[in-house]
């Protein structure tokens, strides 16, 4: 292919909202046999909202503000207040969803005297002199707080429904669960089907837990054996590398800061146009429309451009 022909193709694609960085990106695109899709913000909209706040059936509020046997409704509000207050220090979409929900419930947030966050796991904050933890099972294991049977089965139940869960703990004890849900983008199912029709293998990658990830994968028809869940931000790149080591030509699609190294590592990195600047800068292709339909267009365009100029 001549550079000028590829340049012309690039311009044509741009008119369709598919921005190839250069001619080489168009060329590499047509050899892709494997697509790795980030879950949150790529397959889904990435706009979490709270669905459930759960406390143990023996939990309530103590006079000193701790949680003990008592009124369940009050306990739920207290768990929500603590979780939302702790999330004030975070920029995670789950945190924002919890804060927004607490506000709709007329809950006044507390001040934080200390805050720390562990990417892909959770946050820790000091509220009214007590340490509050909000995060996933991995995070609580790391902190050394035991997961009671009651909360383990609650997590199961919520995650089977495709909800994302976080545990809430005070000091050395788990006191509640908050779950959020995220809407799957309108055309994700259809686009993944179109990729399969082209003979492309699709994988999902996420920091979210296995059960939630599988429930979402099931909805969009991704093989459960091709779900990579609980992947820490710094480990996404290794997952892409592993597939490449198996001889696959990999395109990685993502939107977040977390995705940037994996986008660079992939044979073709594709950024969702509504994503973060760093994801866009790390990519070979960016999709102006923030949907997977545009990804299918990118494949079609690269094939068409390339067959014309060959
Ligand atoms: P994703 O790949 O879906 O963008 P992340 O790597 O950002 O996920 O986070 C993975 C998991 O870590 C979340 O599903 C959540 O359980 C936990 N987590 C991360 N940050 C927070 C936070 N600020 N508050 C609560 N949980 C968090
Ligand atoms: Mg994402």
UniProtKB/TrEMBL annotation:
This is Copper-translocating P-type ATPase. Belongs to the cation transport ATPase (P-type) (TC 3.A.3) family. Type IB subfamily. The lineage of its organism: Archaea, Methanobacteriati, Methanobacteriota, Stenosarchaea group, Halobacteria. It comes from Salinadaptatus halalkaliphilus. It comes from the Archaea. It is found in: Endomembrane system.
């Amino acid at each position: 292919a001549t550079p000028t022909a590829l340049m012309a193709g690039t311009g044509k694609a741009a008119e369709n909202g598919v921005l190839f960085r250069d001619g080489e990106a168009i060329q590499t695109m047509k050899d892709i046999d494997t697509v790795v899709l980030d879950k949150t913000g790529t397959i889904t909209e990435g706009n979490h909202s709270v669905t459930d706040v759960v406390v143990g059936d023996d939990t309530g509020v103590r006079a000193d503000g701790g949680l003990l046997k008592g009124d369940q409704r009050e306990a739920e509000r207290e768990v929500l207040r603590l979780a939302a207050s702790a999330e004030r220090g975070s920029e995670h979409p789950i945190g924002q969803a919890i804060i927004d929900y607490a506000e709709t419930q007329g809950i006044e947030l507390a001040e934080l005297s200390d805050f720390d966050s562990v990417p892909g796991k959770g946050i820790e904050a000091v509220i009214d002199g007590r340490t509050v933890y909000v995060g996933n099972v991995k995070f609580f294991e790391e902190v050394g707080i035991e997961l009671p049977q009651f909360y383990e089965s609650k997590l199961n139940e919520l995650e089977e429904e495709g909800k994302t869960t976080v545990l809430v703990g005070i000091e050395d004890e788990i006191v509640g669960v908050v779950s959020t849900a995220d809407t799957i983008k309108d055309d994700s199912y259809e686009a993944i089907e179109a990729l399969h029709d082209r003979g492309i293998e699709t994988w999902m990658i996420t920091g979210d837990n296995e059960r939630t990830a599988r429930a979402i994968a099931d909805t969009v028809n991704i093989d459960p054996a091709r779900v990579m869940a609980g992947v820490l931000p710094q480990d996404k790149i290794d997952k892409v590398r592993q597939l490449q080591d198996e001889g696959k030509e990999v395109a990685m699609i993502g939107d977040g800061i977390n995705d940037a190294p994996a986008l660079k590592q992939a044979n073709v990195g594709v950024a969702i146009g509504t994503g973060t600047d760093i994801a866009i800068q790390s990519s070979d292709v960016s999709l102006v429309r923030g949907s997977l339909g545009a990804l299918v267009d990118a494949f079609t365009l690269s094939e068409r451009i390339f067959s014309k100029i060959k």
